[in-house]
Amino acid sequence: MRTLVLGGTKFLSKEIARQAHERGHEVVCAARGLAGAPPEGVELVRVDRSLDGGLDPVEGTFDLVIDVARHPSQVRRALAELAGRAGHWTFVSSCSVYSDEGAATPVTHPPLADGADETDPANYGPAKVACERLAGDGALLVRAGLIVGPDDLSDRFTYWVERLARGGPILAPGDPADLVQLVDVRDLAAWTLDAAERGLTGPYDAISMPFTRGELLAGIAEGLGVEPELVWAEPEFLAEHKVEPWMGPRSLPMWLPLPQYAGFMARDTSAILAAGLRVRPVADTARDTLAWLRASGHEVSRSGLTAPEEAELLRELLRGRPVGLRPGA
């Protein structure tokens, strides 16, 4: 089987290329090559998808094409320039296509209008919708949620792995019963290839079923072999002290305000589980992520609180409370 990965040098697309090669596929990665190298044994064809004819260096036909683009213009060019040379098409989309993060039954954004700025992060969801529309009904649409695991540079899940490994009192956001969802990059890559090989089409929310933040942190602790001292902070306290949600500097990653985002981490993903997605235990992902952190030397800095920021917030939160009392305990 001959497989073209449009990307293949970073995180999910690189893991897809690696696993496809291990399965015996002849794998070609088409990318600029600026984000890194493809997996060992995989051919890299350097392309520039921002240009008309940018995929001209890619030769031959392919049984599978897997695209992770976020810009509709790139998807449009790829479909035109590979027309007649591509078999099954997979487009890796995002759960950000949904417009109402608080809805139990989500509705997608309107597609990004022609001429709108597809590079603007605020247009990410509508741009992914436009990409899905271009790929069409005959494509597999993998609406990925929060992807975690080794090589994750976003530092969302990774923040919690590093923080629990470091020890001491740990500021935890919201309530232990708040829902979260994630998917290990290796599990998502495996299912994407399985589904493409089987010829599946249509949209799938590609993430675990919801579970609680308390279970998340307990799973991480199990994988690291630690017993964390968690100090739960109410959302009002976090907002008052300008702690950002989800990701980025001065944030507590994977925390979202409720009820505004009640649907974002509470998707019913029974369809993809029925279609074969296998979700490994959080403990396994945490253990492997910590091993990658130590081996790679990656420093968690893109998301989360710095040690001084967290210490200051803990002092403020616990001021005046009896010794040993922990909010949310």
How many domains? The number is 2
Give, in order, the helices and strands. Answer: EHEEEHEHEEHEEEHEEHEHEEHHH
The CATH homologous superfamily of the largest domain is named NAD(P)-binding Rossmann-like Domain
- Helix percent band: 25-40%
Please render the helix and strand layout as text.
Elements: E1 2-6, H1 11-22, E2 26-31, E3 43-46, E4 62-67, H2 72-81, E5 86-94, H3 124-135, E6 140-144, E7 147-148, H4 157-166, E8 169-173, E9 179-180, E10 183-184, H5 185-198, E11 202-206, E12 211-212, H6 213-224, E13 229-233, H7 235-240, E14 244-246, E15 251-253, H8 270-274, H9 282-296, H10 307-318
Parallel strand pairs: 1-2, 1-4, 2-3, 4-5, 5-6, 6-11, 7-10, 8-13, 14-15
Antiparallel strand pairs: 9-12
Helix pairs in contact: 1-5, 2-3, 4-6, 4-9, 6-9
Task: Report what the structure shows.
The protein is globular, with a radius of gyration of 21 Å. Mean pLDDT is 95; it is low at 324-329. A 7-stranded parallel beta sheet has the order 3-2-1-4-5-6-11, sandwiched between helices. A two-stranded parallel ribbon has the order 7-10. 33% of the residues lie in helices and 19% in strands. Helix 4 (157-166) packs across helix 9. The chain has 2 domains: 2-144, 3-Layer(aba) Sandwich (Rossmann fold), CATH 3.40.50.720; 157-181 and 210-265 and 281-318, UDP-galactose 4-epimerase, domain 1 (Alpha-Beta Complex), CATH 3.90.25. The protein has 329 residues and is an alpha/beta fold. The protein has helices spanning 11-22, 72-81, 124-135, 157-166, 185-198, 213-224, 235-240, 270-274, 282-296, 307-318; strands spanning 2-6, 26-31, 43-46, 62-67, 86-94, 140-144, 147-148, 169-173, 179-180, 183-184, 202-206, 211-212, 229-233, 244-246, 251-253.
